[in-house]
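Exercise 7. Given the encoded structure of a 234-residue chain, write a plausible sequence.
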């Protein structure tokens, strides 16, 4: 039994506004839920969820998205679209020769538009990668938690990918920036097989730590790097 990844969830002061931005960037439809908005993905593209929160954005974030492009003109078009929808350029110390464009969405979450010809993201689709700050240990934990194959394991850097292909989830290895409070981005998982208690025990045996139970019954845990995630019984 393994958990199923429901979504990557972002806390937002204005979930509807942020969902509109990412719907425009990814060409997806918005599905409203009780506490925010969802952009459903599929077997090869991660679903994104935006949840209402008044917490302040504290950098560095431990996750950011990488969008792919098919040509220099397509990359420019994606950047122009982001700016039109309310995003902005962001300086994180990138060099001009690196090729990717670093931007921030309307809530300040960083993301990159990657130049065409990137071999690592070839065939991964528009949402090519979820790039995470994390150790090799946490990459191996998520491999086992989700049952996704390890597609990169070199120099303490790891990446996993759904068996169906598509978006890669990668961890950059040490040094990992110190954690400052509760993360505003997290994985939301669903129990595969319907036994939430057994799945919690399995995740703990893999290296997770149980933290609390939310009012809606979701169990909040932390992965080996201390990143919170939720396990839902549905």
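Solution.
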């Amino acid at each position: 039994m393994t958990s199923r990844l429901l979504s990557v969830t972002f806390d937002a002061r204005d979930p509807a506004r942020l969902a509109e931005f990412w719907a425009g960037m990814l060409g997806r439809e918005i599905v409203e839920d009780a506490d925010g908005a969802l952009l459903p993905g599929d077997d090869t593209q991660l679903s994104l969820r935006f949840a209402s929160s008044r917490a302040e954005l504290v950098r560095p974030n431990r996750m950011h998205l990488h969008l792919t492009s098919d040509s220099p003109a397509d990359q420019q078009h994606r950047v122009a679209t982001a700016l039109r929808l309310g995003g902005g350029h962001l300086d994180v110390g990138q060099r001009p020769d690196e090729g990717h464009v670093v931007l921030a969405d309307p809530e300040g979450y960083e993301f990159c538009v990657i130049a065409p010809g990137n071999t690592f993201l070839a065939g991964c689709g528009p949402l090519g990668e979820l790039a995470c700050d994390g150790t090799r240990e946490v990459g191996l934990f998520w491999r086992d938690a989700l049952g996704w194959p390890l597609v990169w394991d070199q120099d303490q850097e790891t990446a996993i990918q759904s068996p169906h292909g598509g978006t890669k989830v990668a961890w950059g290895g040490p040094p990992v920036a110190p954690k400052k409070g509760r993360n505003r981005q997290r994985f939301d998982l669903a129990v595969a097989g319907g036994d939430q208690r057994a799945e919690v025990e399995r995740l703990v045996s893999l290296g997770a730590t149980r933290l609390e139970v939310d009012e809606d019954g979701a169990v909040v845990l932390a992965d080996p790097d201390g990143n919170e995630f939720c396990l839902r019984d549905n």
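Remark. The radius of gyration is 17 Å. Students should compare their own answers with the one above.
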